[in-house]
Amino acid sequence: MNKIITIGREFGSGGRELARNIAEILGYAYYDREIISEIAKRTSLSERYVQNVAEHRPIIPFPIHTGRTFWAVIPDYGQNVQQEQHSIIRELAEKSDCVIVGRGADYILRNEKPYRIFVYSDADSKLKRCRENSSNDYSKGEEMTDKELARRIEQINESRAEYYEFYTGQKWGCRSNYDLCVNTASFPDFKKLAQAIASLI
Amino acid sequence: MNKIITIGREFGSGGRELARNIAEILGYAYYDREIISEIAKRTSLSERYVQNVAEHRPIIPFPIHTGRTFWAVIPDYGQNVQQEQHSIIRELAEKSDCVIVGRGADYILRNEKPYRIFVYSDADSKLKRCRENSSNDYSKGEEMTDKELARRIEQINESRAEYYEFYTGQKWGCRSNYDLCVNTASFPDFKKLAQAIASLI
What we know:
5 strands
């Protein structure tokens, strides 16, 4: 059976960077946005749309009682995207040892007994990392005040928690769902941290 | 400033053993029951009594309105014991690099920026460890059924959570209060785990 590491992470905690470091040290495959590209290819939907659907829990449409039921006319690609995501994650896990970031992979692959790592940080460190990291979409955060950016980070993390809880029935970031929870604010040397984690796998 | 590691731990998770391993690798002082002995010495109370008071949140006595107020006649050593515990923990932290197990030391020493580790495990592993570990008081667990022992372990952990929350105002075992949370069921080789943690300090 392949060795699988899943990385759940708070936005702004550097989980992705840590995951990449761990994969590099262990020589494992690394999957993150690649999953979105593959879903887009298979469903013929745009990557942007897929990302949006794949990372948010659905907004449950309630019928509006005005004589007509409006909600039924909205085409529901969400379920397709989720099904593809599940299939792809399972295929990747069967292919080779790997590190998979986010997407509830810890739950999807629970029968494969992955090492489930959760990466988090404190609010100040997340803010600082977002300001410094120009590679993510929030480099436009430069135009936001600290307070606005901190609120945005919090919102993204609330949305991740909702997504995780909706699809897994488990509490996001709660220790009992993980093998290791790491506060990156306390261990800023990611190479060293990745090395320590890799030594345990 | 001395380097301080505090270890919060679920009963049955092997936190004490892991703490001892970390202290040994780093050559740090190790404090656990030694704190109880020292409090007993300073307060002239028995170790057994001190342990009971030092590890449980006080039961707040409400006056009973029957004409007389009974609660006032109970001598309150609890506060003394807690004060001594605080003083001793602070003294130990000033003396040398150290590992301190339990007793809300992460909170008491928060200004000293300790490495705050929380050690936990799943229910089955805790049960197994308790059965195997004849050095703790629960070797008498042999007389209990699995269900009874599991319930006892749960009760002890509920009591630890209550104690921690009462004295710190923080949630016990919640990731945001720690730098690292480790599930020992997933990393049964304690020497290796201690080595990995020590490499981060």
